[in-house]
Write a structure and sequence with these properties.
The protein has 280 residues and is of the alpha+beta class. It is built from six helices and 13 strands. It folds into two domains: 99 residues, Outer membrane lipoprotein wza fold like (Roll), CATH 3.10.560; 98 residues, wza like fold (2-Layer Sandwich). Strands 10-9-13-11-12 form a five-stranded mixed β-sheet, with helices on one face. Strands 5-1-8 form a three-stranded antiparallel β-sheet, with helices on one face. A three-stranded antiparallel β-sheet has the order 2-3-4, with no helix packed on it.
Length: 280
């Protein structure tokens, strides 16, 4: 059986086509520009995170009379001469009022241990709700002036794993993060990441868990209630079944066949070249 160089090359080309997949559904939010503005404007803005067990809170109570509110700030005390100071568990004693108060850890039972007041239920509440609860516990029972309670969530973070370029755990300083911010922090999806098969694992403040399948190829993902993330969310990007153009690879078996056919093609070209030279 005789094979021409053209037939061998054509066979190799067919093998390549059979082993490579055309890119499918690689872009994000296809045709998102057609979503009416009035529809986008109706999407709820990111809400304050609902606090849950394991959250770290920085709570600071201030008021017109700082001496009166000092006992309600963790690590703060008033000396005999009226000087307000803080005790830092990591830095020893400090008289600098700019030093942040120690954090409050929400316990497994959903409570925090607050100075003077004792245990307060924090899990299941927003920062605003917890601040109001603390205010009502303090005023007017202990002090004459209504205090100001400021709360910051110090460990808002999400985990991104799977087919992304830089999987890991990522934090947000402004206590908010949307899906694409998290993906950007992870270096974007790998070209092999399945845009239609992304799983979001979420634990709620009451201990229940949720799993949601996300499709970021679909423009309607912009309207999804899961576009904005909650603290401790886990994003898993599954690998897709096809590979984008320019990023494909052959299986070891196909690579072996392709190498073999390529070798035959090269050898045939060499033989034909030699034969042509001998005829001249």
């Amino acid at each position: 059986m005789k094979f021409s160089v053209k037939s061998i090359a054509f066979a190799a080309f067919l093998l390549t086509l059979a082993s490579c997949s055309a890119p499918k559904k690689v872009p994000y939010l296809v045709d998102a520009e057609v979503i009416p503005t009035e529809v986008l404007s109706q999407v709820e803005a990111a809400s304050d995170p609902v606090l849950t067990s394991g959250d770290l809170l920085n709570i600071e109570v201030t008021g017109p009379n700082m001496t009166a509110v000092a006992p309600f700030n963790k690590g703060m005390y008033v000396s005999e001469n009226g000087v307000i100071s803080r005790i830092s568990t990591s830095q020893g004693y400090s008289t600098n009022l700019d030093v942040s108060t120690d954090y409050y850890l929400i316990n497994k039972d959903g409570t925090i241990d607050f100075p003077v007041i004792g245990k307060i239920q924090a899990a299941g509440k927003t920062k605003l709700q917890l601040a109001q609860l603390i205010t009502d516990e303090i005023y007017p029972r202990y002090i004459k002036d209504r205090p100001k309670v400021e709360i910051r969530l110090m460990n808002f973070r999400v985990v991104v794993t799977g087919a992304v370029r830089n999987p890991g755990r990522f934090s947000s300083l402004n206590e908010r993060m949307n899906f694409f911010e998290a993906i950007a922090m992870a270096g974007d999806l790998d070209i092999k990441g399945d845009r239609e098969n992304i799983l979001l694992y979420r634990m709620n403040a009451d201990g229940t868990r949720e799993v949601h399948k996300l499709n970021i190829h679909d423009k309607d993902f912009l309207l999804s209630p899961y576009f904005n993330l909650q603290q401790n969310d886990i994003i898993y990007v599954a690998p897709n079944k096809s590979m984008a153009a320019g990023a494909w690879s052959l299986s070891p078996a196909v690579q072996s066949v392709f190498t073999f056919v390529g070798g035959i093609s090269s050898l045939a070209s060499l033989v034909i070249g030699i034969v042509n030279l001998t005829k001249k």
